[in-house]
Amino acid sequence: MNMKNKKKQTFTREIFFAQVKNDYYSSLFTFFYSTMFVFLTIEQLIPAAIITFIALGIFIFGILQILNRKLTRSVSERLEIFKSGALVNQEDLTNLFKDVMNIPKQIFSLQSFLYTIAIFLLSLFYHYFPSINLDWRSTLLSYLACFFGIYICATGSLRCTEKICNRYAEEIVEKGINPDIINTKKNFGTSLSVKVIIEIIVPVIITNVLSFFVLLQGYKPINYRHFSPYMQIFRIITIASASLFITINVCFNFYKTIKNELNKLKVSVKEILKDSKSEKYTRTSLANEMDCNVYIMNQILRKFRYLVVKASQVGKNVLDTTNQLSIISTTLSKNSLEQSTDVKEILSTMEDSNSLSKNIANRILNVSEGAENTKKEIESSLELLKQNVLQFEQINVSNESIISGIKNLCSQIENIGDVVTLINNIADQTRIIAFNAELEAVSAGNEGKNFHIVATEIRRLATSTMNSIQEIQQFIQSIQEASRKLIDSSQNETSLIKEETELSHQLESHFDTIKDTSALTFIKANNISEIVDQQTSSFSQIVITLKQISSGIESFTVSTKTISDTAQKMKELSSVLDRL
């Protein structure tokens, strides 16, 4: 029995049994509602009822159960994990929430499609089955009536599945989903505007269309039979009453939906007014705009309670500060009496300070004279240092000019080396040509003897030229090496000169600082001397001031009493904050 109850609690089975109950009653209504349009005889009604309810059983317990299981299996398994407490990741909870809220729409769309096909086939069966054999006009009316019935069935199924899914969604939202999704989407179920269209506007339109066809048929034959005017009027009134009942029912269901959502908002507001520190929040599924408003109210309530807690903490801090202030004011009151005694001691100390100030004035005069002499010596040393810096700079410029000249000489020597290399190449080519000429002269015999002598001489001269060029190249390399060493030596000397120049500039800067400091010392010494002179004349003013301080101490005692009263008022304010 326990296993059976546990099995019934799965999401898939809850959805299925909710649909079975809704589809069963809706199908009964649809069948009898459609029969009122065509006035089936007993002979026609029995086979029609048998075939209809057999098809309904196959559809509900066969096709619908299979499709329902495929649609909800994955979500049902994840919900079981959620119930066990193993699903805690916010992203997984958010995805599960979205999938749960999509189930009613998927079932509504699928069920509407399948029922539409089913009633179409059933209408054809009513027309072609021999025991029923409806005419085409009656078949069309039957199809329209059945279409309205299955639409009501689909909307009822949507309400049932939404109720179940919303219950699970409330638990998931309470567990914690990503709050950013509220900013991108205002509802995750069927919005109120869509509900108005589905549950009010569409049923009203369909009932009006059905009424139009019923009135259009008027007193024409129905199902190959003629009826009296009273029977036709009775039929029209019955159909209109049934349509009115359906319309009132769907409107009432929509009213209940709105009322429930408004009650959630009312509960949220009551929670705020009832207990500002309570951690209880109104559960919401975010199915429509009002549910989203409840969610926002919960967020506001959380922040409001956070502010209340902070206000309570501030009140406690104010109370602690007030107590400390009260202690401090008492201490200050005691200290003021002690300060009155200290003022008299200060008066006697002032006389000793007068003689001490005269001694300080004489010492300051000596410091001023020493600072003046130091300033003159530093100015002389600074002038000599500037001359040395100038000489270093001139040497540096001259040395850089020499380095530039040596670099130009190296460049020209490199150009000469290029020319010598070119001449060497020409001599080498000449030697090869002369050698070839010798070979030609030898092959010519006596006729080429003189030419052979000339070619041999040319080759000898070319070889001699190449040897001389090699010696020249060696000299050039020696000159270039010496030039490089000279440049490196000059650059090192230039670096040393620059360092000496920089050091001289730093010394010059330090001497300037010392000179300025000496001048400033002289000026400050004079200022201190003047201040000491003024100090003596200020002692009389200090005595007057001390008397005023004594009077101020008495006023301070009065102020301490005021502080004590203020502290008491702050205690009362702290108590008010703590009661929030």
UniProtKB/TrEMBL annotation:
GO CC annotation, single: membrane
Coiled coil regions, renumbered to chain: 368-395
Sorted UniProt keywords: Coiled coil, Membrane, Transducer, Transmembrane, Transmembrane helix
Highest taxon listed in the record's lineage: Bacteria
SMART domains according to UniProt: MA
Family membership noted in the UniProt record: Belongs to the methyl-accepting chemotaxis (MCP) protein family.
Protein name: Methyl-accepting chemotaxis protein
Source species of the chain: Treponema rectale
Taxonomic path: Bacteria, Pseudomonadati, Spirochaetota, Spirochaetia, Spirochaetales
